[in-house]
Amino acid sequence: MSGVVFESQRAALADVVAIPVTPFAGDGSVDRRAHRALLRRLLDGGITTLTPNGNTGEFYALTPEERRLVTELTVEESGDRAAVLVGVGHDVPTAVASARHARELGARMVMVHQPVHPYVAQSGWVDYHRAIAESVPELGVVPYIRNAQLPGARLAQLADACPNVIGVKYAVPDAAKFAAFARDAGLDRFVWVAGLAEPYAPSYFSAGATGFTSGLVNVAPSVSRDMIEALRAGDYPAAMKVWEQIRRFEELRAADGSADNVTVVKEALASLGLCRRDVRPPSRLLPETERAEVAAIAAGWSL
Questions:
Q1: How far apart are CA 124 and CA 143, in angstroms?
Q2: In angstroms, how far is CA 267 from the centroid of its own chain?
Q3: FRET label pair with 186: which of 13, 49, 206, 293, CA 20 to 30 Å apart?
Q4: CB neighbours of 46 closer than 8 A, spacing ≥ 6?
Q5: What predicted TM-score, i.e. pTM, was given to this entire model?
């Protein structure tokens, strides 16, 4: 859609992009009350960009009805206090329906999860995202890129067809590859979000990112705010002090192919009495041996 200006959406991406957890009740359903309380805690902590149905929210373990519920709760609770970037994905019709649902609720952006398919052609990647972006031309669209083989030129091709593709959540763990990809796609054309959270934020910011995603922010919003403020000021020594502070927590999340990525966050929240520790398969509960360590880290941040 020509003429649509996405200034506020672009500004919202150049920030801490929080990925809220989806808390579960004792019966296994989404705990609406805890969910709202956790969202309020993020908002009260100064977080102004929220991604319902992200990976930290266990997107792939939620039913279609639950994904809609999580979107509705987030938009409702946020009001005008935050920009909402709704995670969408799966097959094209499902992703399109989710994006249109987000639009109906008043969300102004969607993040498109990487295509889950064993055979992803580069031109097919463009076609997949184009079908979704063209279905909601009024919304800002943010591809979530985890494919190290995808060249920046393909993103530029997508944006040529769909000017509402305004930002990128780049989650390939290679700062040099990110720097090259961003420049090949157009460094100033998109808002670059470091999609591997705080551990990669300093290196990705040095190469052109202006925002980063965070799951840790669920536990300690002030810690994530400290990092973004240091990075915005170009104070890399200060940013690395925060990096040192969060290093062990993030190492626990990243271990064994990120097996406990969400589990560690929920364990920390449970230790603070904020929600149950429950996660859904194929995630697992944290072994007893690591629970005390996570609780100690969270207690230190909450002081």
A1: 14
A2: 19
A3: 49
A4: 221, 222, 225
A5: 0.97
Tokens of 71: 């979107």
* Phi, psi dihedral angles at 164 (to 5 degrees): -80, 0
Residues forming a β-bridge with 50: 18, 84
Closest among 155, 160, 258, 191 to 49, alpha carbons compared: 191
User: Do 290 and 283 meet the contact criterion of CB atoms below 8 Å apart?
Assistant: no
Cβ burial, residue 159 (10 Å; 0-12/13-18/19+): buried
Q: Could you count the other beta carbons within 10 Å of the beta carbon of residue 119?
A: 6
282 cis-preceded (ω within 30 degrees of 0) = yes
Long-range own/partner contacts, residues 296-300 (CB < 8 A, 24 or more apart)? 297/248, 297/249, 297/268, 298/219, 298/220, 298/268, 298/269, 298/271, 298/272, 299/271, 299/272
